[in-house]
Amino acid sequence: MRRKIIWRTLGVLVAAFIVLSIPLRDVVPPAAPPGNAAGAFVWDQDSLWLALERQFAEARSRDCGQLEARARSRMDGLARIVDELHQQEVSAYSTVLDSLESGFFALSPVVAACPALVSRFTALYSDIRESVKSESVGWDLESRAVRDRLYRLLYGSRAALEEVLLQHPDSVVALIRGRDEPSATPSASIAGVTVHSGDLLVSRGGYPTSALIARGSDYPGNFSHVALVHVDEVTGAIRTIESHIEIGVAIFSADEYLSDKKLRILVLRPRAELPQLREDPLLPDKAAEAALARAIAGHVPYDFAMDYEDPSKLFCSEVASSVYSQEGVDLWMGISRISSPGLRRWLASFGVRHFETQEPSDLEYDPQLAVVAEWRDPSTLFEDHVDNAVTDAMLEGAERGDELEFKWYELPPARVAKGFSWLMQKSGTVGPVPEGMTPAAALRNRSYTERHDRLASEVLRRAAFFREANGYVPPYWQLLEMARAATADEPA
Fold it and tell me: What is the pTM of this model?
């Protein structure tokens, strides 16, 4: 009798394991829409990058005293262009902007070789960004050519600056101040920066999936998360309202916000001259109050579908855009698009259903917002670039048909963990599988993270050999080649 019970129990367990092993059909994302808006941005400038690296290698072998005078003269010329931009409006198609872009890139090899120029080069970067942001107020961000122009100038100038900074780790300035945009809302200081209620903090996390969020767009960027600032008018206490995959919408203190791993932070503020703010200067604070009130009122789950038009669930960008929209300010003037079929397939397997959405990185290009400050962690800047290179190489694999795979026998325990997580969520705690995430998506997330970490370790190893052989830190295009080689060397 006991033997029968044992066999019956084993049979039930085996049957349950088999049933739990049956995979659900993956959602197939819709094809990207045709037309002007479709298609990921491609630099297609490999010859330029290699030429800049050769110029840098040559400059390293020369006396900086002979190079600095000419470099400073060229920086003076670019500064004059920036001053002219502040005095007049130019279109996105102006050849003056071509000169600004090419001139800044052309300076980077000499600055990378001569540390005495870094401070001036950093200040020039900040001035260029502010002038371009100001000029873009009248540009049509739904135009592909305009979006390309803005991306090349803002993302490109940051990339050039960081290539310089990586060659001079002791000269890295962690905090770069931007425009001191006036605001009538309550304010307080955080990490040496005055923030106002209604400001937006756009940051980059230190995890593989953070890199995927930052790079997973038609315009690959540097940021993966958005938080909305609330400053209490009476106490001056700073709180951030944000949405996280694990817990949905939550409220954090300033210390809690900073203690979460971040590689970089961009402080953005609505421009005071916006018509809506001229009519109501306290509008940003009202948006922050609304977000805070909703977070206090009850649980708001994370929106894995990335549907910014559905207010019942919120991903990080929606926390800000939803309340600002209620006040008449529509953020993300240029909506984010994800066109690459491989990337769409991967994101769909994570639960994403909307591929015209609001990506954190793209908020930087919104002309309605001024850059108040930019902070980067000097100690992790190189690892940040490695993460980007590995992510870009993996996404190239997605376009070739690579899948996010996991072992079939991992699905049953993942489904059990999902059920356990559901029970924990009912009691107000967080389980191993986030609310709204399927067991298969959780396994793909883990598989993606493990693969990214393996490749990043290999790229770091190859980068160390490169530095020993060449005497300098490998620039991004070299890191990307290392990441491509590492993916090619992976066992089948």
Answer: 0.93
